[in-house]
Amino acid sequence: MTTEPEFPSKKRLFLGLLILTFAIVLVVINILGWVGTVGLRQLHPLLPLVAQALVGIMFAGISIIMVILVLTVSLGKELPFGRKLRGLMIKVFLPVMVVIGRLFGISRENIKRSFIEINNQLILSRHLRLPPEKILILLPHCLQLADCQQKITNNIENCKQCGRCDIKDLLELAHKYGTRIAVATGGTLARKIVKDYRPRLIIAVACERDLTSGIHDTYPLPVYGILNQRPNGPCWNTKVDIQRVEEAIRTFSQR
Fold this sequence. Notes:
This protein is an alpha/beta fold. The protein is 57% helix and 9% strand.
């Protein structure tokens, strides 16, 4: 079964990589600015000053972004402009952080796991309270036993609720609280489900890779991620903490 480190260590990991990524970006900007001024001096004596001013503006802008994002992650709250900057973090800086992390021997899974926890903290800080029917529980097909003959990806209600896998308990939760629930076999179907159901919040169960890509693909729609448990390895007869799913529903539901 996959185990998860405590949240403080995840936060420190993410913060460290975030600060290192920004530091590298700032160094690259300075190097490019210096190289540019050397070449521009030959064209016109004022061009290097213009280039230095632009580099200074970029440096200041990146620094402000860094401070806001670091504070947002540290405090677990979305500060002014934090929601838009979260998109920048998801779409731009996270891929760079994965590359940098690998250079330092940090696994892609650990980086993504820390990102998922940070993302969850930011969503919780918004104190969302939604009608249950506006909440979608999105599940991976690997929660269903591999030898089960019931086709539940088109309609999860086809589940016979035999209790051999966690689908039964999850379906009962959806009925109990009145939330929407669906099973996706991949990113394409997941995006179609989101488009058809038009939820205002998704409680997604998946592995690190699929949760991260789902958060990326559905931004700015909030996705609260819950990692599945893999006692038999990835993508095969996985499980999930039912109590944690129920706690998430109760946290975001108006009922």
